[in-house]
């Protein structure tokens, strides 16, 4: 009977139902964090590097070798790689064809019935999932024979960084300032989701250096008019929009009566750059990676906050996990000088740090992928990044009242080190009832929220959700 009820929960759309089982309890313990870090940096990211190179190689072995910076392949692997390149090229073409149909169905002029919209969305997810997952797996055998870096590094020199951001050192707030008037934000047709209504938003990124469309997936609770909202940023390399059967916490917010507006971070999902996997430029082009991503995402979050108010939302929080939390705290830090409609009422930060400028050298993730060595080779030291901290680090003073900030930190977090997040929470005087110090690390803390959503419940209470 218990098994049947759990299966029913999955069928009804409850996210990550398996995490509520005893097996889920084992996975969300601290032992899993070093395993996850090793798997991500030693297996997933290198295979993703080959997949991204295959995506622009268009079946050409020569171009693939150039993209991967390989002088050649081990004996006996060329035929295997050629087959993998052909597979990725086919999956990519199918993905692109389905994406065109999806855009026409959800944003085109012709009226589309709900059943068709659901089918088109399922097809988009499946085609994207096949391209990302099956395409990556095609190179797993090569990874067993060849070692290559997990990140394609293109570290800029100091002159290039100084030319773009040097003039703003005296006024760092200018790097994040949203437009005075909210531009038009295009809204897709709506489908019925697991916990209410779902639709997508898109608009030109306000940062010219991005030069692309920003996207957000909106999840609304059923039966609630003008609910409070959370504008939410995901973590580095997280591409939930691209997976077919992923179970995640998007529906948890609507279950607490809160609208979720989940922004796709620059260089992720629909915003991936050719030849790069999701989020890779953030690591590979430091310090531009952090400077440009935060300058874009902070403005995009501000625009989505204003959009929430425009459509009749109640109180609006800004928040996120890991990379999304780092961007969210910059929104809160700089919002005092913005028009009122762009300012958040609350901050929700999961696995965060106030030493953002130091993460390039001090995070176990950046050390695992070789970022400190890549920076040093290009002539950068940790002290060189101090000048850029106004563009990456949160404000020293509390940006919001203590009762309007909710922090969730992992005592064993070494990616965004726990001590740095705790120091910020203490300096900002986060209310004790809003400060959740969990025993896990960077990866198990977010997973644990699916087992015990107490921080989400607290956020919903402070937002005044019904």
Molecular structure report:
The model is unreliable at 1-15 (pLDDT under 50). Strands 1, 2, 3, 4, 5, 6, 7, 8, 9 and 10 form a 10-stranded mixed beta sheet that branches. Helix 3 crosses helix 5 (78-107), helix 5 (78-107) runs antiparallel to helix 6 and helix 11 (288-310) packs across helix 12 (323-334). By secondary structure, the protein is an alpha/beta fold. It has 2 domains: 16-145, no CATH class; 158-463, Rossmann fold, CATH 3.40.50.1820. Helix content is 44%, strand content 11%. The protein has helices at 2-11, 22-27, 32-57, 61-68, 78-107, 114-137, 140-145, 158-165, 252-255, 280-284, 288-310, 323-334, 359-362, 364-369, 371-377, 418-427, 444-451, 454-463, and strands at residues 186-187, 191-192, 196-204, 213-221, 229-233, 259-263, 316-321, 346-350, 405-410, 435-438. The protein is globular.
Provide a compact summary of the structure.
With 466 residues, the protein is α/β, with parallel strands linked by helices. It is built from 18 helices and ten strands.
Specify the CATH architecture of the largest domain.
Answer: 3-Layer(aba) Sandwich
Total number of distinct structural domains: 2
Global mean pLDDT = 92
Work out the strand percent: 5-15%
Quick one: CATH class of the largest domain? Alpha Beta
By DSSP, the count of extended strands is 10
- The helix fraction, in percent, is 40-55%
Show unreliable segments.
1-15
Per CATH, the superfamily of the largest domain is Alpha/Beta hydrolase fold, catalytic domain
Distance between the termini: 32 Å
Oligomeric state of this protein: single chain
Overall 3D geometry?
globular
What does the radius of gyration come to? 22 Å
Count every helix, treating DSSP H or I runs of 4 or more residues as helices. 18
Summarize the helix and strand pattern as letters: HHHHHHHHEEEEEHEHHEHEHHHEHEHH
Quickly give the structural class: alpha/beta
Main beta sheet strand tally, sense and closure = 10 strands, mixed
CATH topology of the largest domain: Rossmann fold
